[in-house]
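Incident log, support desk, overnight shift.

02:14 A customer reports that sequence design results differ from what the structure should imply. Their input is reproduced verbatim below. On-call engineer (initials T.W.) acknowledged and began investigating.
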């Protein structure tokens, strides 16, 4: 890597990206045989450490930047260097504030030192973490900055802000290693790309002249004719779920019909009420008013347990906090939704549970292909496959999907949507929420647009496009649904 180069590191879930980053950070110790060279100085990989990484100028900002929302910008910046003190040993806040202003100006961050980080935009929080990591360098261009999925949880307009900042840093000479699943960002930002597959380098080349299709083929190791399954040519007419006048949180009188075998998308900006809609239907949020029918019968659920009993399933947005049991094994995660079926005579039939788990692992392509590891040790894409398999094994009447491919690589994304479409083909009605409008345009048979808690438009394939969904989500004048 050259000075000022943005080098993208790509690969499918489980390809070794996270392991490589942890080796570079000194979190993991490498096996003997390799070397790590920084600034022309080589070190045996097995002797590399966190202290060595810091000494050589490697800085790391992870997917969930370690900022402290309850502290000010100045306090967050100071944590990286240490708090200046006066002669009496007390924190010198005037000095801390002056130093913070210098850092903010150098990194072009539009924030005040005394502002709480909780009040900042997500992109600014990431930039605060970057500035804290690089503040002691002579300029914004020494050492190597390693960014691990920095845009995974950012909406599109925040991504643009962060990418613009990274371009400025690179132009000033900062070398950046950029890990992402978003291929458009690679095309837009990176100079070179290296792809890992099964723990080995599958290819490395300049980004110039490379297309997203070419990147996909490098990642999966084969031509990928379709990332997304084929949409339905006609919308089904058999109503699985009907919602009338639903009000909860920001939602105000939502009406919709969801058909059997249909993938119905719900598009909207953050705060439009899209996630609240799913959680209300699943009994996870108290409904203010409205009526829901399932297969023609009134549905009244006040808890997820009742929703599950009625035939609903929810894959939540935050799989780590809400969808997974990280400390339990893959087998236990897969059986959690049907665990009662394994009880006989007061004992759990572990053999049957293990047999079923292994069959699901094979069917969903979970890696590693073992039911024993703790689910939290799997890569993001494989965790999501486990969550999806757990719900689909129940053969739900309605599947609620909230950001099902967030932080998931393109190969796993294709696998996830193939299973979702297969479930729809067998009659499951799917309600899909995703902030990736390009993905929505390829996956959904029909899309409803939410704006400020109201449904304002309906689109049918092939008229569903990312540009049209963006336009309808932002419009301030009403558009007939």
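02:41 Re-run completed on a clean worker. Output:
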């Amino acid at each position: 890597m050259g000075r000022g180069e943005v080098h993208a590191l790509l690969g499918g879930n489980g390809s070794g990206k996270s392991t490589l980053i942890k080796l570079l950070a000194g979190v993991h110790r490498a096996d003997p045989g390799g070397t790590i060279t920084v600034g022309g100085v080589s070190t045996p990989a097995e002797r590399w450490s966190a202290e060595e990484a810091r000494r050589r100028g490697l800085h790391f900002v992870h997917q969930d930047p370690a900022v402290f929302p309850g502290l000010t910008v100045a306090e967050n910046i100071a944590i990286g260097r240490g708090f200046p003190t006066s002669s009496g040993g007390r924190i010198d806040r005037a000095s801390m504030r002056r130093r913070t202003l210098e850092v903010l100006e150098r990194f072009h961050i539009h924030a005040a030192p005394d502002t709480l980080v909780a009040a900042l935009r997500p992109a600014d929080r990431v930039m605060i973490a970057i500035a804290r990591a690089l503040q002691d360098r002579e300029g914004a261009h020494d050492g190597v900055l390693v960014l691990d999925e920095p845009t995974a949880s950012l909406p599109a307009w925040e991504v643009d802000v962060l990418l613009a900042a990274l371009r400025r840093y690179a132009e000033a000479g900062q070398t950046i290693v950029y890990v992402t699943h978003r291929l458009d960002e690679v095309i837009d930002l990176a100079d070179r790309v290296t792809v890992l597959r099964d723990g080995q380098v599958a290819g490395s080349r300049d980004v110039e002249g490379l297309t997203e299709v070419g990147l996909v083929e490098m990642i999966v190791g084969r031509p990928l004719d379709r990332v997304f399954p084929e949409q339905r040519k006609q919308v089904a007419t058999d109503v699985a779920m009907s919602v009338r006048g639903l009000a909860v949180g920001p939602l105000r009188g939502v009406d919709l019909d969801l058909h059997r075998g249909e993938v119905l998308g719900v598009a909207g900006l953050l705060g439009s009420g899209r996630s609240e809609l799913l959680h209300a239907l699943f009994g996870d949020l108290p409904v203010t008013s409205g009526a829901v029918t399932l297969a023609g019968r009134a549905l009244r659920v006040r808890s997820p347990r009742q929703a599950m009993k009625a035939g609903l399933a929810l894959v939540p947005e935050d799989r780590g906090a809400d969808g997974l049991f990280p400390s339990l094994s893959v087998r236990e995660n897969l059986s959690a939704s049907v665990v009662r079926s394994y009880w006989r005579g007061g004992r759990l039939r572990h053999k049957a549970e293990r047999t079923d788990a292994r069959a699901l692992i094979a069917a969903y392509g979970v890696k590693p292909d073992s039911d024993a590891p703790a689910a939290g040790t799997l890569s993001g894409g494989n965790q999501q496959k486990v969550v999806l398999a757990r719900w689909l094994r129940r053969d739900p009447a309605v599947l609620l999907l909230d950001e099902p491919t967030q932080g998931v690589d393109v190969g796993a994304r294709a696998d996830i949507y193939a299973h979702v479409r297969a479930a729809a083909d067998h009659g499951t009605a799917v309600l899909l929420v995703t902030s990736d409008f390009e993905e929505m345009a390829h996956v959904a048979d029909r899309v409803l647009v939410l704006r400020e808690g109201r449904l304002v438009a309906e689109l049918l394939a092939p008229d569903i496009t990312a540009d049209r969904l963006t336009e309808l989500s932002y419009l301030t004048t009403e558009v007939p649904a």
